[in-house]
Design a protein that fits this description.
Length: about 450
């Protein structure tokens, strides 16, 4: 029987995905749960499995198209009895049985609330009064939608081009990224032909129009050059970063850290860690463990702004910014403040390896409450990172550089120095709270010595 394949719902906060690559073509036989298409959401890239055994008969959503969750992306001739759509759940990113579909697709009840969350009225931040539970926010790399009208957000007001607000369905469903791309190149959306679902205009449609002679866009830069089509992941990253910087009033602070003891500790334990546990000991697990402790002492840094209130997380789930196979990803180390140093080292090793291989699951990138960005590995000595929306702060650990410093009795010595830089949401955090957190991280890093036990 003919059966429509739908874009699976992958989480409450994810409203759309981009078709990255079809793994099967019309006429191909497919087995149940066999991957048929690669899609990219604002959380992670993943493969969508076939809901049944049969033959793929038609592709509805072409590569590059932005598709809403639940929308039809293909058609297949399924063998046997009617099948139910597959739901990919964030907890394990694996297909669930058809009988679980009704439960998984039902909206959460108003009375239910996620564990590990507290909410404080913005006027009561100083006392950190615990208030009523609130609905799920995800707190992941991007725990909210990309801002389509379907998500409940108002239409983008970045452009004054009234043609972007045409009432017909094709234009009403334009994603913010497509809207900005149209405005950036000065194109008339009425002149574009949409190849997406329901004739929706996709990024690929816009870029194709830009490259056409006579569009006017190719003469914008008199110096010449060429246009490159960004990957779906790059487009998601661009949208997420733009939204974060647009919505969050960023502020920055930084301190210098003398990491002489930290360098000595790593040197003393590298061989032991490799022989005993098969792990390459880097500076990152030290920074992760100490940051987790500092967040426990400074809970306001472990929060997010929610309309007129501040959501303070009880769980300390730290995301680690990683340059992945297809772009920047932020896998999350859950309950980092409750893990031993060895556990953190093991978790980091496995998580970063999966990130670089493009094998992260949705659970790997969900529920983050704070982000740690190790740009020091790239040689950076100072940086002002963009906050991982909707979190309240991100900490950057920079490269360790030997510099002359003034020590006790005004002596000058050459010491390994590392800058730690904090970007914070000024709606939630003021300079006093930011400085207190940075000083706790500084003291923790400077407190490490060659005698520190790595347990």
């Amino acid at each position: 029987m003919l059966f429509n394949i739908e874009m699976p719902h992958v989480g409450e906060s994810v409203t759309e995905a981009v078709i990255e690559k079809w793994l099967k073509q019309p006429g191909d036989r497919i087995e149940k749960y066999e991957p048929i298409v690669e899609v990219v959401t604002d959380k992670v890239a993943m493969e969508v499995p076939a809901p049944a055994t049969g033959e793929l008969t038609k592709i509805v959503a072409q590569e590059g198209a932005t598709v809403a969750m639940g929308a039809i992306i293909a058609e297949m001739d399924a063998e046997g009895v009617p099948v139910a759509p597959i739901i990919v759940e964030p907890e394990n990113s694996t297909p669930v049985a058809p009988e679980a579909v009704q439960r998984a697709s039902s909206p959460p009840k108003a009375a239910s609330a996620p564990m590990g969350l507290r909410v404080a009225n913005a006027s009561q931040v100083g006392s950190m009064i615990t208030g009523a539970n609130v609905g799920p926010t995800g707190g992941a790399f991007s725990d909210t939608s990309l801002g389509s009208e379907a998500s409940g957000e108002p239409a983008s007001n970045e452009s004054t081009n009234t043609s972007l607000r045409r009432p017909d369905a094709a234009f009403a469903r334009l994603s913010p990224a497509v809207r900005r791309l149209i405005d950036q190149h000065g194109l008339d959306p009425a002149s574009l032909t949409g190849t997406g679902v329901g004739d929706r205009i996709t990024r690929a449609d816009v870029l194709r129009a830009v490259e056409e002679p006579g569009s006017g866009a190719e003469t914008a830069n008199k110096a010449g050059g060429h246009l490159e089509v960004p990957s779906a992941v790059r487009g998601m990253i661009a949208e997420h970063m733009a939204r974060s910087f647009r919505e969050i009033p960023h502020a920055w602070s930084a301190v210098e850290v003398d990491v002489s003891g930290l360098v000595a500790c790593r040197s003393a334990n590298r061989d032991w860690m490799l022989k005993q546990h098969g792990l390459n000991l880097t500076y990152l697990p030290f920074a992760l463990a100490i940051t987790a402790e500092a967040l426990r002492r400074n809970p306001l840094l472990n929060s997010s702004w929610q309309s007129d209130r501040i959501l303070v997380y009880d769980d300390v789930n730290i995301g680690i910014a990683v340059a992945g196979k297809n772009g920047l990803v932020v896998p999350v180390i859950k309950n980092a403040d409750k893990r031993s140093f060895l556990e953190l080292t093991q978790d980091l090793s496995g998580t970063i390896e999966r990130a670089r291989d493009g094998k992260l699951s949705l659970d790997d990138v969900s529920d983050g409450t704070f982000t740690l960005n190790n740009t020091g590995a790239l040689g950076s000595v100072w940086g002002g990172a963009i906050i991982n929306h909707p979190q309240a702060a991100i900490l950057t650990t920079e490269a360790i550089v030997k510099r002359p410093v003034v020590t006790k009795n005004d002596a000058v010595e050459v010491r390994p120095i590392m800058n730690i830089c904090l970007s914070f949401d000024h709606r939630v955090i003021d300079g006093a709270e930011a400085s207190a957190f940075l000083q706790d991280v500084k003291k923790g890093l400077e407190g490490v010595s060659s005698d520190t036990a790595l347990e």
